[in-house]
């Protein structure tokens, strides 16, 4: 392990190369980009001033090398990235229709799905101040799910915060298994950051306030419920506050929730209380919807700060 100082944030999961249908008038034209929820979060956090490492496996292929170049350019530490010569880097496609964006995945057997607890970079995880994990990382394979729980144990044992986004994807696993796994994870996290749509499936159509209460009953100490265009509802278990969204003209919401997670984590570690951190994350997530793709429109710290300064003025 390098003698470099450990990054404050460590994220674990599956990166995927993205092909995004940017122009509806040209439905056969896809622009290559990058995605994967926890990778998006890591890049968002790095752009917003965080010190971040990513833990995953990549294929020994052109797409894997593109990710290594991307993370290097974004300042994301890759000491926790392994190369798997026997499995590919995952790919997904985004189409835009009347009902929003639609995803198609080529991820079965991906290199990232072959991560396992014994392969975790223990020193990196234990040296973090915050670990970020997601339900997608738990869903892609049994060994990846075990790795997530292993990383949580390492981080908690070292006194780190755990930020958990359930990010429910029913194409990856049945609802009953997803619900059982997510409910087992909630008591292990410090902050749960679900979207309202995901939480409604987990808790049978509950409204926002009921979802937050259900997360607390399930054991989550802190909850930030992401409400999309309606902002977010933040609860630290004692105080609850709705924070309205920053208004923009959105063109593509891909990755906005991941951007929120990265912004929230970065500001928590910078010393903001969770309500101020969530306000910052609201603006960052809104700005992330103003361009196409999961990574390209992720904002920089100065972009978010300029919006907040205008609102204060």
SSE topology:
Layout: E1 9-12, E2 16-20, E3 31-35, H1 37-47, E4 52-59, H2 62-74, E5 77-84, E6 90-97, E7 100-106, H3 122-126, E8 130-134, H4 135-139, H5 142-157, E9 161-165, H6 175-185, E10 191-192, H7 196-202, H8 208-217, E11 222-226, E12 232-235, E13 240-243, H9 256-269, H10 274-288, H11 301-312
Helix pairs in contact: 1-9, 9-10, 10-11
Q: Could you provide a short overview of the structure?
A:
The chain contains eleven helices and 13 strands.
Describe the structure.
This protein is of the alpha/beta class. The protein has one domain (9-312): UDP-N-acetylmuramoyl-L-alanine:D-glutamate ligase (3-Layer(aba) Sandwich). Helices cover 38% and strands 22% of the residues. The protein contains 11 helices and 13 strands. It has helices at residues 37-47, 62-74, 122-126, 135-139, 142-157, 175-185, 196-202, 208-217, 256-269, 274-288, 301-312, and strands at residues 9-12, 16-20, 31-35, 52-59, 77-84, 90-97, 100-106, 130-134, 161-165, 191-192, 222-226, 232-235, 240-243. The strands form 2 sheets. Strands 5-4-1-8-9-10-11-12-13 form a 9-stranded mixed beta sheet, sandwiched between helices. The protein has a 4-stranded mixed beta sheet with strand order 3-2-6-7. A hairpin with a 2-residue loop joins strand 6 and strand 7. The N and C termini lie far apart (47 Å).
């Amino acid at each position: 392990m390098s003698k470099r100082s450990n990054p404050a944030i460590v994220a674990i999961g599956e990166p995927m190369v993205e092909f995004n249908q940017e122009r509806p008038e040209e439905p056969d034209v896809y622009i290559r980009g990058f995605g994967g929820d926890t990778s998006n979060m890591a890049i968002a956090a790095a752009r917003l001033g965080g010190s971040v490492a990513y833990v995953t496996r990549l294929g020994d292929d052109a797409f894997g090398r593109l990710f290594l170049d991307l993370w290097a350019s974004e300042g994301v530490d890759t000491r926790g990235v392994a190369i798997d010569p026997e499995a590919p880097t995952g790919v997904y496609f985004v189409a835009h229709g009347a009902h929003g964006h639609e995803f198609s995945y080529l991820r079965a057997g991906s290199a990232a799905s072959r991560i396992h607890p014994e392969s975790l970079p223990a020193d990196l995880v234990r040296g973090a101040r915050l670990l970020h994990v997601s339900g997608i990382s738990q869903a892609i394979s049994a060994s990846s799910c075990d790795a997530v729980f292993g990383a949580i144990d390492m981080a908690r044992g070292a006194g780190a915060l755990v930020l958990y986004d359930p990010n429910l994807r029913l194409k990856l696993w049945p609802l009953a298994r997803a619900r059982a796994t997510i409910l087992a994870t909630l008591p292990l996290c410090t902050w749960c950051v679900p979207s309202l749509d995901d939480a409604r499936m987990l808790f049978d159509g509950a409204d926002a306030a009921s979802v937050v209460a259900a997360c607390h009953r399930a054991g989550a100490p802190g909850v930030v419920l992401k409400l999309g265009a309606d902002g977010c509802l933040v609860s630290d278990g004692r105080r609850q506050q709705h924070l309205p969204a920053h208004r923009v003209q959105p063109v593509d919401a891909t990755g906005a929730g991941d951007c929120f997670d990265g912004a929230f984590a970065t500001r928590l570690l910078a010393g903001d209380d969770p309500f101020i951190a969530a306000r910052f994350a609201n603006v960052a997530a809104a700005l992330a919807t103003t361009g196409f793709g999961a990574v390209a429109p992720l904002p920089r710290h100065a972009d978010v700060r300029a919006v907040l300064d205008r609102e204060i003025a």
